[in-house]
Structures are given as C-alpha cells and as structure tokens.
Design goal:
This protein is α+β, with helices and mostly antiparallel strands and 324 residues long. The chain is built from 13 helices and 14 strands. A hairpin with a 4-residue loop joins strand 4 and strand 5.
Length: 324
Amino acid sequence: MIKNIHDITLFLKILGKFQDSKGIDQTRLFFLIQEKPKLIQWNLELEDIFQLGISLNLFNQKNNHVILSQKGLDVIELDDGNFDLNEKQLEFITENCFFNNLNFSKLFDFLKLLKFDKIQKTLVLHPDDYPIPKKLPTELLTQLQIISIDSNLWKINPKYIQFIEIIDNKKNPITQNQLEILLEEQKRVGLLAEQLTVKYEKERLQKKKLSQESKSVQQISQIYANKGYDIESFSKKTPSLKPDLFIEVKGRKHRLMSFIISANELFVAKQLGKQYAIYFWNNLGSKTPPLSPTKIIKDPLNTLNIQECDNCLNYLISLEDLVK
C-alpha cells in the first residue's frame, strides 16, 4: 500500500497532545489514532505510517513507548492547524529527515541515476531508460516534492540538487549533523555575499549619480531560487529602470580562490552574455568582511573558457590565474 506522508500528522498531533516525559505507550497511541478515521472517513495502515515516521526520525520507540524526537517537535512548531503537512513542514522533513538518512539509501541510489538536462534545467529521468524496481517507494519522492512527473519525465525539484550532489559523495560520507552544519554554513556565507553585493552595487551606482538605478537594485534570490542569478542591477543609466546587469554571487568563508558554478547558471549566462556577471567574495569568515568583491567576472562563459560536458551538473572554477 502507498503510504501517505500527510498521515504522519495524526501521530505528531496525538504525540504532541498526550505524551509525557516518557512518551506514550504504543498500544494507546494506536488506539487514539484509530478513533480519528471514524471522523475523517478513511482507513490507515497504522503500522506502515508508524514505521515511516520512525525511519524519518520524527519520533522514537523505546520499551514500547513512543516519544517525539526534536525533529518531530520542530515539525509540530510549523503546524498551521490543517491536517495535511504544509509547505514549510514538507520542506523541513525533506531537508532534515530524508536527505542523508541511511534508511533511504535505496532511494538515494535511484536519485543518483538522474542526469542533468539543459532544457529542463534540472536532473531528469525517463523511466524507459531505467526499469524502476516495483518495491522501491518512489511515491515518497513525489509526496515530499523532491520529484515531479510530467509526461512520463521524472524531474528533480531544482532546490534539492545540492542535496543529491552531497549524497553522491561515496568517498567521504557525512553524518546528518555534518550535513545540516554544512548547508547552514553555505546559506549563511551565501546570504552575506549577496547582501554585500547589493550594498556594493547601490554605492557604485550612487557614485555614478544614478540614484534611481541605485534604489532599484534587487536581491531576487530569496524569491526565485532557480533563476540562475541572485541580483538584478544596472550597468548604465536606464530610464525604464529595466535591469541590464544580472549578477550571480559566489562566496567563500576563507581565502580560497575557487567556487562552484552549476550547469543551470552556465545556461543562463550563455543566454544573457555580457549582461551576466559573477561577483566572487572570499574571506567572508573574517572579523572585517571585504568592502568590494574579490573578483568581478563579466560574461563568465567566455571569460573563464569553461569546457562544458553533457552530463556535468557543476564545474569547479579556480581563480588563481585571474587574480594575479
């Protein structure tokens, strides 16, 4: 039977309401949950849903008692009163309970089969190219919105590509805690680099006496995660205030002179040509962050002479020669 991830909310709500310091007896937990379907009119495979919650580390079982984990408590904190999991809850479970969870290693092996498609701008899979094992719980991938299926084409949600790249690192496996720390640090450094870029652009335009353009610089990365760039700005006076400079921001915590550029970012760079630029910042972990980018790379596809390949998701760019 296909398990519905949303049914886990029954367990979370009842545990949150009735558990004590030791949790709640499993028999009582199941009894309380069995009362609910009489009202909502459907049947639940309680044991299957229960085991899914255990696998996702949303609650733990010990001595026939069940108790919410910290992750389960965090999911409850995001509750908006509806029965189904909301977007924030689904995203939290996906990023914190699913990825790098060895309970789902077979699904990870499946995800690593997907290849980047330049037209779709994400990882894709044609089921005809790979016979999907019937017992593989791929429905969990669609329920968590990791994968969408369109005309028999399986597509990865672009915001989860970075997670798939991390689980694909067989030589250096990392723990869930290490993954959370790594991703959080990446977000923090990336956000700082974007904020510094916005400040830099506004000041640069003000110095050119382009006041309206300065006020119109926008950080769009928080709204459009897969746009292929982070900042919309201006290279000259533009009466229409239509952006003509599109900036992808790269940040490093230390004095490293390299960064990763994705195939999607390269695709957008190719479309925009000289209107596309990379602002690279390093040493952002210092007490006094830099005031200007370490390097500004205009038209990076040609400037960096990147050799593209059909199945490459990312490219490692070294700037050692460019900054001398």
